[in-house]
């Protein structure tokens, strides 16, 4: 499994590394939503700086977006910060964000190039 899950006081951090598949993205999502801590989480922090590539085709992106939008109806105002400098990985995440916004997600999304920047945004009200 090319990701580490780290539960923090107010949210979850995923550190993805090596090559990541759509199945592994689903598994990370399942870890979050099946844990009672998700109900009080204020953020998800997705760290991809050690990721070499991602297999996440357009249909898989739509499915994850739709799943998360449905979850956003009960877990409102969650912030999702992603850290990505690889253009191909960033493009896939931005596709997910665009679809989620088009489906009227209540979540807030923003991309960053460093964890420090992401954490500053996560602390804002």
How is this structure best described in words?
- 42% of the residues lie in helices and 32% in strands.
- The chain has a single domain, classed as 2-Layer Sandwich (Transcription Regulator spoIIAA), CATH 3.30.750.
- The model has no long low-confidence stretch (mean pLDDT 95).
- It has a five-stranded mixed beta sheet, sandwiched between helices.
- It is globular and about 30 Å long.
- It is an alpha/beta fold and 125 residues long.
- It contains four helices and five strands, in the order ββαβαβαβα.
- β4, α3 and β5 form a beta-alpha-beta unit.
- The longest helix has 16 residues.
Q: What would the keywords be for this entry?
A:
about 120 residues, globular, about 40% helix, Transcription Regulator spoIIAA, five-stranded mixed β-sheet, alpha/beta
Entry summary:
This protein has helices spanning 22-33, 58-72, 87-102, 115-123, and strands spanning 3-8, 11-21, 43-55, 79-83, 108-112. The model has no long low-confidence stretch (mean pLDDT 95). By secondary structure, it is α/β, with parallel strands linked by helices.
* Strand order in the largest sheet: 1-2-3-4-5
Number of H- or I-type helical stretches? 4
Task: Decide which structural class fits the backbone.
Answer: alpha/beta
How large is the radius of gyration?
Answer: 13 Å
- Bin the strand percentage: 25-35%
The fourth-level CATH homologous superfamily is STAS domain
Instruction: State the distance separating the first and last CA atoms.
Output: 33 Å
Q: Tell me the domain tally.
A: 1
Give the averaged pLDDT, no decimals: 95
Coarse shape: globular
The helix/strand order is EEHEHEHEH
Largest sheet: 5 strands, mixed
CATH architecture: 2-Layer Sandwich
Low-confidence stretches: none
CATH domain fold name: Transcription Regulator spoIIAA
The CATH C-level class name: Alpha Beta
Helix fraction, binned, reads 40-55%
Q: How many extended strands?
A: 5
